[in-house]
Amino acid sequence: MQLYQHPYSLDSQKVRLALEEKGLDYWPYSINPLKAKNLDSRIFRMNPTGKLPVFLNGQHIILDTLSILQYIDSIHEPLGGDAVDREKMLLWMRSIDSWNPKLFTLSHVPQKYRLFFSRFQRRAAIARMAECPDLAGKYHLKLHSAYATEEELKDKELINSSNELLIKILDAAEDQLSSTDFLAGGAFSMADAMFIPILARINLLNLEEEYIGSRSHLLDYWNRVKKRPSYHAVIGKYFSGWRKYKTLYATYSSVWVRNLFRRY
Ligand SMILES: N[C@@H](CCC(=O)N[C@@H](CS)C(=O)NCC(=O)O)C(=O)O
């Protein structure tokens, strides 16, 4: 199994947590979207939306995160075994999947940094388009979606409704975790693999107190899952404490240099 992914990508984190928890062997290829590596033609040919993750097993390619997790869970024994209510798990997975973290994340990033990266990504898309004219149509779509995101970020109602959906999910989790240790019962399941990256994103954006700290069962769950080896391998290693500044600074300085030398 091969996984084109990056620690910055929340959907990549979901898939890697699932693979780590199942103890499966896989090759994780790091593709940094902030450095526009997802626009390299080799990746873009596999997935012309440029989105991560891209999951490959032999000739089989899956792009949809929920489908990747269901596929992973079908290998050997399902995660959590009998301690997991499968119907509940699927309901949780669909509910979590319905929330797109893009607007929430970008609306909490200072505009200066957001524009710095989005400008670089647009320039990279134009450069790749010139190198691979056969993919020009797809790169154009990518540029359009970058401009569309800028417009969406001006729409306060859209941002509010994304925020409200997140709060609904967190409230439901708080309710659930008052009676079970994990989202779908007494053991870690694919629902947890999908949910933990959301908590990690809240934490990365320094919003933990507001969104997690105010919900006591959720806070207890968050403190427990952060201790799991899978969390360390997929998220903690890059973002715990001071590490997040190191990770973000490494990307920022690399893009800064490439901008300086116009190496898109
Ligand atoms: N294909 C995924 C969506 C993946 C997705 O939205 N990925 C984001 C990161 S979590 C991404 O790659 N963004 C970079 C970009 O759009 O250029 C799904 O349908 O579940």
TrEMBL record:
- Molecular-function GO terms, alphabetical: glutathione transferase activity
Enzyme class, top EC level, equals transferase
Q: Locate the GST C-terminal domain: which residues?
A: 120-248
Q: Which InterPro entries match?
A: Glutathione-S-Trfase_C-like (IPR010987), Glutathione-S-Trfase_C_sf (IPR036282), Glutathione_S-Trfase (IPR040079), Glutathione_S-Trfase_N (IPR004045), TCHQD (IPR044617), Thioredoxin-like_sf (IPR036249)
One Pfam annotation reads GST_C_2
This protein's UniProt keywords: Transferase
What are the EC numbers?
Answer: 2.5.1.18
Q: Which residues form the GST N-terminal domain?
A: 1-80
The record ties this protein, via CDD domains, to: GST_C_family (cd00299), GST_N_family (cd00570)
Q: Which PROSITE patterns match?
A: GST_CTER, GST_NTER
Q: Does the keyword Transferase apply?
A: yes
Provide the protein name. TCHQD class glutathione S-transferase
Tell me the organism.
Pinus tabuliformis (Chinese red pine)
